[in-house]
Structures are given as structure tokens and as C-alpha cells.
């Protein structure tokens, strides 16, 4: 699927030339799927292909609604046209229409049972919708069709991780890393498992690899900062938390982490400032457990 951040944290989609993308050549972090096929440089043999090409051009112009209409017309003209359904699924997913996107990807695999990317993206959408059994079915089928589909290995890893199968998840994330060289997410999620297993050196290495692939990966900077803080490296931790904040100024965890550093340094005024901001962000995000934790720290400062 493309590498992209979907409703469920981290899920990726992939286009034929690039898609999860996001959860997304390659897997564009934070982006949405690339387009499956571009017919602009090859002869257009049918009206359906002409509509598909028109839709792709509209996507390039950020006219998503126009692209969806063109892809729908392509499959109306040729109900067996799998690339039309596939790109329709990508466009619908980008517009937030999960159910319709899943239906389009399903039609793509029904009209072309060997279409690995369509199977992978259908699995990704089902994973996002928390339909784990069917997501597993299509992700495993995508990998069987093309064992080099890194985004499918990644999403299967997320599925295993969600189910609590850390060893299987880690194996899938390693396969994702092997089959793509520019996606930070597999390294990040592998790091989370290493942290759970107490393999801190490997966790730091994986987080730094994720950051090298995406300097604006706020969560990776934060996790690295949390490790450095636990090791007593206050300067390194604060640098990481500041990098997390710069990557995402609204990321509450970055401020919370910085507050812990200032507390350990005995700088109550700076700690209060960043912790109050973190608390307000947690409240806005309805993360009530973290609101309580932050308020407890603020009470200690004020007392």
C-alpha cells in the first residue's frame, strides 16, 4: 500500500509506481498513495484508458474529485478494467472514503486476481478499518504474489503488532526494511519492539535509521529522547525532544519529555512552561491519562 499516515497510526498504502504511501517511488512518509499506472507515454487503446489517463492528470493538478469522476467513468466504460478500479481505490482512500476505497480495490482484485498491489492496498484499508482477519488474508495474498512488496510486509507487521505477536511483527518489519530502502516506518516500529524486549542498543539504532530517512519523524525523535533520558543523557534527550517539537510543533509528548529534562535539571520555571503546554495539548486531544500525569508533575512543581 502507500506509505502514508492513515486513520490507524502508521498504516501504509502503495501505488503501482509508488503507493501507503502512506502510508506510501517508494513509500512517501506522511503522503498518500502514488498512482498505479500512467499511460501518458504509451498508446491509448481504449476509451477507458483515456479516462484513466485523464484522471491521473487531474490527480497531478490536485483535482481529486475530478479524478474520482474520471476513474469511475473508466470502469463504467470497461467494467473489467482493473487499473481503473485500483486508481479509483487510491483516490477514494485519499478523500477519506474507506468503505468505497475497499470496494474499488476488491473489484481490482476480482478483475485481476494476480494484481499484487491491489491485494496489498485492500489489506491496508481493511487493517485501517480494524478488520484484521480479512486484512491478513489480502496482505498475505499480496506477499504470495510478490514477496518483494515491502509495504505489504510492513502492514502485516502492524497487524501482528496489534495482535500482540511481537516476534512475528519484528520479522515482518525486517522484511519490509529489506525490500524498501526509503521507508522510515518499519525501522520505527521495529524500535518499539526492541524497547519492549529491552534491546536498547538496537532500538536506538533503529530510531536513528528512521530519523535518517525522515528528519521530521516527530515520534522517532521523541522515542530516542525517552531512551536517552532513561540513560541519564539529559543534553541528548533535550536535543531529541526539541527535534521532535520542531518536526511537529503540536506534538504534546515532545513538550512533556522536555519538561522531564528541565525537572531533572532543577529548572522549575521552564519545566512548568512546557508541561502546561503539554497538558493543554493532551486535553485538546482527549488523552485524559496523560492530562492527569502532567497535572501531577505540575502540582509537584507548584508545591
Automatic annotation (TrEMBL):
The keyword Membrane does not apply. Keywords: Repeat, TPR repeat. Gene3D superfamilies: Tetratricopeptide repeat domain. Pfam families: TPR_16. TPR repeats lie at residues 48-81, 82-115, 116-149, 184-217, 218-251. The keyword Cell division does not apply. SMART domains: TPR. InterPro entries: TPR-like_helical_dom_sf, TPR_rpt, Ycf3. It comes from the Bacteria. SUPFAM superfamilies: TPR-like. This is Tetratricopeptide repeat protein.
